[in-house]
Every structure is written in structure tokens, then in C-alpha cells.
């Protein structure tokens, strides 16, 4: 589902995020002031809420399906972090490439995918976005410039810099697009991230290095894993901005700041989203050894991104509580139907076993029963 660009009424409001904006200025290029206001469209923000509800329902059903053993292997959920893709897509367009790690379900549907494609992929069905062969960690939609879904920690960051390099080559002083490459606080110490940052700074590549800081790398607190926990400062010679990742409008305006910086030909920027995941790192994480249920509930009560946007819409007179309850029920019904459709869809056929490996070449596949030859 693509957010509508039709404008009914635009309003400007003061930004008051729970986590204030912060700026890292290396002093190498002039920087714009930090955002203090947000502009929203009354029709589009309703669609924003609908998308956040859609992601949460999809992830809740994924949790249930995994526990029922309908999903095998790895499964990383996005519950609590829905404001990040929704807020960013208010500023980005589908010509701005996105690449992320393995917590990728939400990004797939904001980039034009469907919950059916996500469910089918995890169920190993032919209708999955990667033909049921990639699973939870490998959602993909090249048509809309979404490049995954990558399972190796931090490996997607150089890919994102590469996706943006084309724009710097085409127009170094005013690139037409940016790329966004995501990583988590747990991946922030990977050497390849700093190598990508160095090249991006040298070549003035319009890439946003987006760190989704959900406070824990697997079961390890950021304070135990990183000496410098202000991840927006980790680019050193690259400007950085810290944003409340659980406030949708703050995400929107922080993204606007970062994108405008890149499009001005000033090179890359580090964008840290301070957020929190309510679920374990993955479905195999018991999530009880390193934090308590009361810790999670405290964040839900104080910062939940969906509760925040609902309260905002009521206070602005955009929607009533009854209208939001009706929308919530409608979204749940739609996503539930997509789950059923995915469960009933045909499995990926065995003929797909040898496809999408090598293009136009004959190759062998060694098995316990001998060598199998196949022509792609």
C-alpha cells in the first residue's frame, strides 16, 4: 500500500519528542538547524496510522504462527519500531533505495508489498516475495528499490553505500536521490560499517547510515557492548543526528533533515533512531535474562509509537477514538484474511530448488545420492 500524496489539509505543529533531537557537527560542512516543527497532511497521517496498525498486526500474527510451528528458522519482529519505516516514507520516495538487516517485514510492506507476501515467504509458499525460498530475513522488492532483508550482521551497510554511489557519480553537487542503509546498535561496531563510512565521506556519497538503536544487540545492552553509545556520533567526521524513533513525526522530520543534507551534495549522514523492541531479538530469544516485563511495559506506557500517534490525532481533532477503533478492527480483519490466504496457498515447488543461483550457466549440485546437473 502506497501512502497517498493527495492533500486535504496541511498543518504545522511544534515537535516535542520524548527523546530530544541531538546533533553531531564535525565542523567540515555547514549544517542546517535541528527540526523544531513538523508538517503533516490530515489525510496522509490517517494512512500512516493504518500502516503502523497493519505492521503491528502482521508481526503479532507472525509471533503466533511461529509458536504454532508454522514458521521455521529465524524470525525477527518489528513490534515497537513501526514509526521508523512509516515516518521515513513520508519523506523518501521509491526511487530512494533501501537496504536493511533481518528485521525487515515492516519495510517490505511500506515499500509496496503485502502482508500476504510476508506470511507466504515465511511459510515457504510460492507466493512469497522471494518465492518462499528466503524466509523471514530475506524480503525483497527490487521494483520499488527495496533490497532486503540481509542475514549477515552489518553486511548490508556497504551495499547501501554502493546503491547511493550512482547518484554521486551522476551529479556530485546535487544528487537526485539518496539511499538509506540500516543497521542496529548491535552491529554498530562492525568494521565494514566504518569502511563504508570512510568511502562515502571521501566520495560525498548521498547515503543515510541509519542506526536503529533498540537498546539491545541480541541479549546484550548497548552499554555493555559499546564504549560510545551515542551512535549518531560514531561517524566521527560525518555529521550525525539523533531522533526519537518512536515518534512518527520526529522520524519524518529527522529524515527530511538527513535527506536534504545529502541532496545538497554534502555527502553522507548518520541518523540514529532511539527506539525499543518489545519482543526478543528473535523468536528463539526467551527475552527474560536481560530485562524484565516491567521494563518493557514502562516503555509501552510512556513511548509506544501507535499510542502516541493516536493521542496526537485526537488532540488535533483529526480522528475520534471511535474512528480509530473502527480502523483498528478493519486492519485486523484484512491482515487476518491475508494470513489465511497465505496458509492456503501452494508450497514452493521442488523445481525452484535450482533457480536463482547461477544465470545462464550449467552447474552441478552434489547430493548424498550423487551429482545433479541443471541448466539455469
Q: Which blocks of ≥5 consecutive residues have pLDDT under 50? A: 3-7
Q: Could you say which overall geometry the principal axes of the C-alpha atoms support?
A: globular
Give the end-to-end Cα distance, rounded to a whole number of Å. 34 Å
Give me the strand/helix succession: EEEHHEHHHEHEEEHEHEHHHEE
- The structure class reads alpha/beta
Please tally the helical runs, counting DSSP H or I stretches of 4 or more residues.
11
Give the radius of gyration. 21 Å
| Portion in strands | 5-15%
Q: Largest sheet, order of strands side by side? A: 2-9-10-6-5-4
Arithmetic mean of pLDDT:
91
**Count of strand segments:** 12
Main sheet: strands, sense, barrel: 6 strands, mixed
Helix content: 25-40%
What does this structure look like?
By secondary structure, this protein is an alpha/beta fold. It is built from 11 helices and 12 strands. The protein has helices at residues 42-67, 83-89, 105-110, 115-123, 156-170, 191-203, 222-225, 248-263, 293-303, 305-315, 321-344, and strands at residues 10-14, 22-24, 37-41, 98-99, 179-184, 207-213, 216-217, 220-221, 240-244, 269-274, 362-367, 370-375. The strands form 4 sheets. A 6-stranded mixed sheet has the order 2-9-10-6-5-4, sandwiched between helices. It has a two-stranded antiparallel ribbon with strand order 1-3. Strands 7-8 form a two-stranded antiparallel ribbon. Strand 7 and strand 8 (220-221) form a beta hairpin. Helix 1 (42-67) runs antiparallel to helix 10 (305-315) and helix 2 crosses helix 8. The radius of gyration is 21 Å and the shape is globular.
Amino acid at each position: 500500500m502506497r501512502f497517498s500524496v493527495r492533500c486535504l489539509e496541511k498543518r504545522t505543529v511544534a515537535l516535542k519528542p520524548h527523546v530530544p533531537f541531538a546533533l553531531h557537527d564535525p565542523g567540515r560542512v555547514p549544517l542546517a538547524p535541528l527540526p523544531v516543527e513538523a508538517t503533516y497532511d490530515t489525510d496522509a497521517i490517517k494512512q500512516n496510522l493504518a500502516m503502523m496498525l497493519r505492521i503491528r498486526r502482521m508481526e503479532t500474527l507472525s509471533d503466533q504462527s511461529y509458536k504454532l510451528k508454522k514458521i521455521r528458522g529465524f524470525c525477527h519482529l518489528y513490534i515497537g519500531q513501526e514509526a521508523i519505516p512509516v515516518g521515513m516514507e513520508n519523506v523518501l520516495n521509491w526511487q530512494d533505495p533501501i537496504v536493511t538487516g533481518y528485521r525487515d517485514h515492516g519495510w517490505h510492506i511500506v515499500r509496496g508489498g503485502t502482508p500476504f507476501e510476508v506470511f507466504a515467504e515465511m511459510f515457504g509458499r510460492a507466493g512469497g516475495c522471494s518465492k518462499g525460498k528466503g524466509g523471514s530475513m530475506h524480503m525483497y522488492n527490487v521494483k520499488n528499490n527495496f533490497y532486503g532483508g540481509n542475514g549477515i550482521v552489518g553486511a548490508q551497510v556497504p551495499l547501501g553505500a554502493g546503491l547511493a554511489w550512482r547518484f554521486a557519480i551522476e551529479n556530485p553537487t546535487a544528487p537526485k536521490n539518496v539511499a538509506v542503509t540500516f543497521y542496529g546498535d548491535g552491529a554498530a561496531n562492525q568494521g565494514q560499517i566504518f569502511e563504508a563510512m570512510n568511502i562515502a565521506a571521501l566520495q560525498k556519497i548521498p547515503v543515510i547510515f541509519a542506526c536503529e538503536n533498540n537498546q539491545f544487540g541480541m541479549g546484550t545492552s548497548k552499554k555493555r557492548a559499546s564504549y560510545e553509545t551515542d551512535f549518531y556520533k560514531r561517524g566521527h567526521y560525518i555529521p550525525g543526528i539523533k531522533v526519537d524513533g518512536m515518534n512518527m513525526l520526529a522520524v519524518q522530520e529527522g529524515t527530511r533533515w538527513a535527506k536534504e543534507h545529502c541532496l545538497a551534495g554534502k555527502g553522507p549522514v548518520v541518523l540514529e533512531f532511539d527506539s525499543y523492541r518489545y519482543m526478543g531479538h528473535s523468536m528463539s530469544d526467551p527475552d527474560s535474562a536481560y530485562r524484565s516485563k516491567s521494563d518493557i511495559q514502562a516503555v509501552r506506557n510512556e513511548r509506544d509509537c501507535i499510542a502516541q500517534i493516536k493521542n496526537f490525532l485526537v488532540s488535533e481533532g483529526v480522528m475520534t477514538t471511535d474512528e480509530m477503533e473502527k480502523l483498528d478492527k478493519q486492519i485486523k480483519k484484512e491482515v487476518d484474511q491475508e494470513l489465511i490466504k497465505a496458509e492456503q496457498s501452494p508450497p514452493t515447488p521442488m523445481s525452484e530448488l535450482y533457480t536463482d543461483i547461477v544465470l545462464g550457466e550449467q552447474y552441478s549440485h552434489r547430493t548424498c545420492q550423487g551429482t545433479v546437473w541443471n541448466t539455469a
